[in-house]
Write a structure and sequence with these properties.
Strand content: 5-15%
Number of strands: 9
Radius of gyration: 24 Å
Largest sheet: 7 strands, parallel
Strand order of the largest sheet: 7-6-5-4-3-8-9
Order of helices and strands: HHHHHHEEHEHEHEHHEHEHHEHE
Number of helices: 15
CATH superfamily: Glycosyl transferase family 29
Distance between the termini: 36 Å
Bound molecules: 2-acetamido-2-deoxy-beta-D-glucopyranose
């Protein structure tokens, strides 16, 4: 990261020491000329070294291993400066990806759905994971006192299932025997900012969203309709101050109220850091039983199955993004899937302008490359784009109106 930024700084700065034009060159001036030649050589060497370092660190990202310890939070759709530099200048595959994307942007009506291929994909996925059943734990699938482990944390960490937690589980999976025609999976990339895709997104039969992303004030770009959203328990900590004040509790209650009958999909058993907040969350839901229409779903330890499927597609990051996870779930529920807000880079492919990483980030929020530690969003994106060209899904990267 630091390398990439240094590289940019160097190359954007004009070369120093302008030489006097014409005339004789006195001793001092010759000295200057030598100095500038020397400077140029140093600059080129530095550039080479920096490119090499970036190249090596990208190579290192190609084959990550599964680690038992995940970080505390799922970072999604951040666009890092390093990835921008990396993808633009160092990854030879980007040139072809970039021109393919340009073609898509020019004529999005060229995209064609291939239902044969999609049904094949759905069958393949179902060989690795029983999505309707693995979508959520149910009351019959756990026992009070049972110790749960966490997908991305050391086995020593446990969560003991209590009567309250069990009482919040559904009797049956809310997606059992549910089938929708065309679904939208909305990622949180800054590419949605100013897209005016809201009206289009509102028209889908079922809308998936990620990480309880706000919609109300961005409805022009992302729409409001939500039929399912993921809720990492750490959101309570980040946005609702752990429900420590009456105000925080009211805010959280109102946010849930807006979801109406949507599914709140709570991955509480991915990271051990969720354990404490999960207890706060459980208490809150028990206290407000009957006052909210939102349907709770609590997946168990399912990531190994999901990972196994994507491994067959040569995608095996330490952690898959929530976006691709939603696509995987959607594959069993929907006959056709369209993706919005899937774009992990820091520039707009339509205009080349800088983008925030989330559509809801405040202006001036700094890029983060935290996701690089565990996610591989550029690799995920490449795969999703390939699937787009095969008619398995439709990616929208352009503006809608
Ligand atoms: C876009 O592609 C479709 C189908 O290939 C074609 O009918 C249409 O004329 C194209 N439009 C433009 C603007 O190129
Ligand atoms: C649709 O997918 C199937 C299976 O992958 C493939 O055989 C077929 O050629 C595809 N059809 C089109 C029109 O691309
Ligand atoms: C996933 O589904 C299979 C088949 O129904 C079941 O045996 C397994 O216990 C489920 N696992 C989880 C974590 O839901
Ligand atoms: C999706 O949500 C909208 C409101 O947000 C609701 O009107 C619609 O019935 C829901 N669709 C399904 C399939 O649950």
């Amino acid at each position: 990261m630091r390398c990439a930024r240094a590289l940019a700084l160097l190359s954007s700065r004009p070369l120093p020491l302008p030489l006097p034009r014409g005339g004789r060159c006195p001793q001092r001036c010759r000295m200057l000329r030598y100095t500038s030649t020397f400077g140029l050589i140093i600059f080129s060497v530095a550039l080479l070294i920096l490119s090499f370092i970036s190249f090596v660190s990208i190579k290192k990202d190609v084959n990550p291993r599964y680690g038992p310890n995940g970080g505390p939070r799922m970072y999604m759709f951040h666009a890092g400066f390093r990835s921008q530099v990396a993808m633009k200048y160092l990854d030879p595959a980007f040139t072809s990806l970039s021109s393919a994307i340009n073609e898509d942007l020019k004529n999005s009506s060229k995209w064609k759905y291939n239902s044969t291929a999609f049904i094949q994909l759905r069958t393949e996925i179902s060989h690795h994971i029983d999505i309707p059943h693995n979508f959520t734990l149910t009351r019959d699938s756990v026992k009070v006192g049972q110790l749960m482990h966490f997908d991305y944390s050391s086995h020593k960490y446990v969560y003991s299932i209590g009567e309250n937690f069990r009482s919040l589980l559904p009797e049956v999976s809310p997606i059992l025997n549910r089938r929708y025609n065309v679904c939208a999976v909305v990622g949180n990339s800054g590419i949605l900012t100013g897209s005016l895709c809201g009206a289009q997104i509102e028209k889908y039969d079922f809308v998936f969203r990620c990480n309880f992303a706000p919609t109300e004030i961005f409805k022009k770009d992302v729409g409001r309709r939500t039929n399912m959203t993921t809720f990492n328990p750490s959101i309570l900590e980040k946005y609702y101050n752990n429900l420590l004040t009456v105000q925080d509790r009211n805010n959280f209650f109102l946010s849930l109220k807006k979801l109406d009958g949507a599914i709140l999909w709570i991955p509480a058993f991915f990271f051990y850091t969720s354990a404490t907040v999960t207890r706060t969350l459980v208490d809150f839901f028990v206290e407000h039983r009957g006052q909210l229409k939102v349907q709770l779903a609590w997946p168990g330890n399912i990531m190994q199955y999901i990972n196994n499927y994507w491994k067959t597609k040569q995608l095996s990051p330490k952690r898959l993004s929530t976006g691709i996870l939603m696509y995987t779930l959607a594959s069993s529920m929907c006959d056709q899937i369209h993706l919005y807000g899937f774009w992990p880079f820091g520039w707009d492919p339509n205009t080349g302008k800088e983008l925030p990483y989330h559509y809801y980030d405040r202006k001036g929020t700094k890029f983060t490359t935290k996701w690089q530690e565990s996610h591989q969003l550029p690799a995920e994106f490449k795969l999703l784009h390939k699937m787009h060209t095969e008619g398995l899904l439709k990616l929208t990267l352009s503006h809608c109106a």
